[in-house]
Each structure stands twice: as C-alpha cells, then as structure tokens.
Specification:
Elements lengths: L6 H15 L1 E2 L24 H19 L19 H11 L2 E2 L5 H17 L2 H12 L5 E4 L15 E5 L2 E9 L9 E7 L10 E7 L5 E6 L8 E12 L3 E2 L5 H13 L15 H10 L6 H29 L7 H24 L16 H6 L10 H12 L20
Parallel strand pairs: 3-6
Antiparallel strand pairs: 1-2, 4-5, 5-9, 6-7, 7-10, 8-9
Helix pairs in contact: 1-3, 4-5, 4-6, 6-9, 7-8, 7-9, 8-9, 9-11
Length: about 425
Amino acid sequence: MMITQTVEEFAIAAREWLDVNAKQRHDSAAEGAWGAGPFSVSVFHALTYEQERDLLGEITAWHRQKAEHGYHAITWPTQFGGLGLTKEYARIFSKLEAEYETPNRHETFSVTTGLIAPTIERFGTPEQQERFVSMFLRTDALCCQLFSEPGAGSDLASLSCRASRDGDEWVINGQKVWSSGAQFSQWGELIARTDPDVAKHRGLTAFMVPMDLPGIEIRPIKQMSGGTSFNEVFFTEVRIPDSLRLGTEGDGWNVALTTLGFERDHSGSGGGSARPGGTFSKLLATAQALGRTDEPCVRDALVQAFIHMRVEGFVNRRAADLRAAGAPAGPEGSLGKLLWTEGMTKMSDAVSLVLGAKLVADTGEWGTYGWGEHVLGAPGYRIAGGSDEVQRNIIGERVLGLPGEPRVDKNLSWKDTLR
C-alpha cells in the first residue's frame, strides 16, 4: 500500500480523534506520582470473575471503537481492517493514546490480537484468514492458548492430548492447563497429538477450537494472589471439522513455536511503558515517598533496576526494527523474554528492600502493601511463554553454538518414550 499521509498529518488526525472519543489524563507526565489515583502493580489479575469479565468488556469496547478508523491495527494490511502503515505510525498513536484515560490491559486481549491473529495470518488457509483474522484483530471474539498440560509444560512437545481422525472430523480427548482467559474465550488454539508413532515434535497438529462445543469443560484455578485468570480445560470426545485444522497435519510444532515466538516478543515495549507488574516510575515514587533514596543499598538497587529497564528497551527496539525490515525471528525473542522476567525480579528485590515489613503488613497506606501482588506474581512469568531455562538453552544452542542438552528420546517415537 502506498502511504499518502505523513507522520505529522497522521498524528494531527489521531489527536483530533482521541480528543473526541477519550478523556485526556489530567497529568500524563505524573504517572507513578505518589497517592495519585488507583494503585496497581499486579502481574496477574486478582479480580473476581465478574470484575474480570467487565474489564474485558471495557477493553474490547474501546478496541472496537478504534477499529472503526483502523487505529486498532495500524501496521496490518487493509484487507484485515488495518491501515497498512509502518511501525513509526503505530508508535506515534501509542504515545498519543497514553495521554488519555483508557481501559487497563488484559492477557486474553493480548493473546487474541498479538499471538493468535498473526499465527492464523501466517499458517491459515485463505478461508481461515478471511474468517478469523479481522474478527480477532477487532476482538469481536476472544481466544486462549491450549498448549500446556499437567505432564507437558516446558517440554511442550511431549504433550498427550489426542486428536484422532474420523473421516472429515477430528475427535479430541485430553486435558490442558494454565490456559489464561479460557473462561472468557470463544475460541482456542489447540496443539494436539495426531500421530503417536513418530518422534514427539513431528506428531503434533494445530487446530482452532470453539470453546462452547459439547465435551469441553473449563475449570478456573484459584491463584495465591486471589484471582482466577488461569484454567484447566478438559476435552471428552470433542468433535471438530478438518476445516478448523491450522497448518498441515503433523506441523503443529512449527505453529506452536510461531505463537510462542509472538508471546516472547516484547518488541512493542520500550521497557518503561505500561506493562504487567508496574513501571520503574512507580518503584522510584515508592522509594521517594518513604524517604529511602539517600540510602546506598536502596540507591544501588534502584540504579540496577533502571539500567536493566533501559537495556531491555534497547533490545526490544532492535527486535522491532528487525521485524519491520522483514527479518525472520531470531534470538531477540528469547533474549527479550529473559530480560523481561529478570527485570521483574530486580523490581521485586528493590521494592522488598524499600518497603521492608510494609510489604507484608497491610497498614492501609497507599502504594505499599499493594506491591505484594507484584512480588507474588512475578515468578510466574519465569515459566510463561517457555521457561527461562528453555530460553537459555535456545540461546546457547542456536546462537552460541554450544553442545545441545542430552535428549535420550530424540529419535524415539512418542509412544515409546518414558512419561
């Protein structure tokens, strides 16, 4: 598509639209200011079912409002409802939008628009692309990932959920776990085993599954932080047509890796933007409010957290530039994911040092005890999107050329492996 609107013209038009459709923040530069507005640094939602449902409703309503002008998918082709513009235009809109009051984030929204929509665009048939991509980009329907299982977490390729061919249909039996937002999703991207007689990576196939089919049971999991964002999903004789198969039969591992690559990619984040677990500005404001910034140990922890955030931002910008140039996925995804989780750990360590007992004793003071949601939730990201250990193996083997981990089951058929 030929771009006919300059960045400056786009920014003016976007500002005018935002002025009409959203309320400007009183002081967007004061994000993290002590005592201003609601305080939340949670990594995973600690909401009731009704609160989480209502939040998703607010997010999708705002997103669909943006979709009327293509602002929901600025870099996507016009055939999918986007504007076909470059990332520079998208960054401009994101910076402008941050100056207005908009609904908070939710993982199910990100999974739908940032993981599954682009996966279908890459692997789907023309009919699947026409049916799903625009719908998911607009969030007219929401999606969840149906990947992990009780016996297949980091070693995803060892999963045992079966999909058996029956004419033009597939019959699915098995269990998935840690499926974020499954209770709110209309669709799920499922990776299932279709051939147990070949090596574990080769016998997998991907499917799009309607979550309201007979035989599907969703059980929310209570988190220690209070919410129920994660779920177990059980499949008992669930039938889906072959037209919902995503990619070729036996190519599910490549489909899964593509989705996980999008999950690990934080190239859209500059490192200090709105993100799960809060921002450095909130951490700094907490230390300043408690009068701890003159203490050498606290200052060192704050500096380490800030340096890490900046390095993370540079890595993410590099990944964004490579993606914009059409380069294939490289080590930036794994590196970015490691930096993301390590950054959360540094923030947890720093705020624990700053708060001391205030972290675990609720005094009612604004912006103190609430940090407990971050400290409790941050470790979860070490296994989300592929564990930190898996990311280090990827970098060691595929980037540094180090010897691979011993894999005794590499050339065995799945049915012959120990489980």
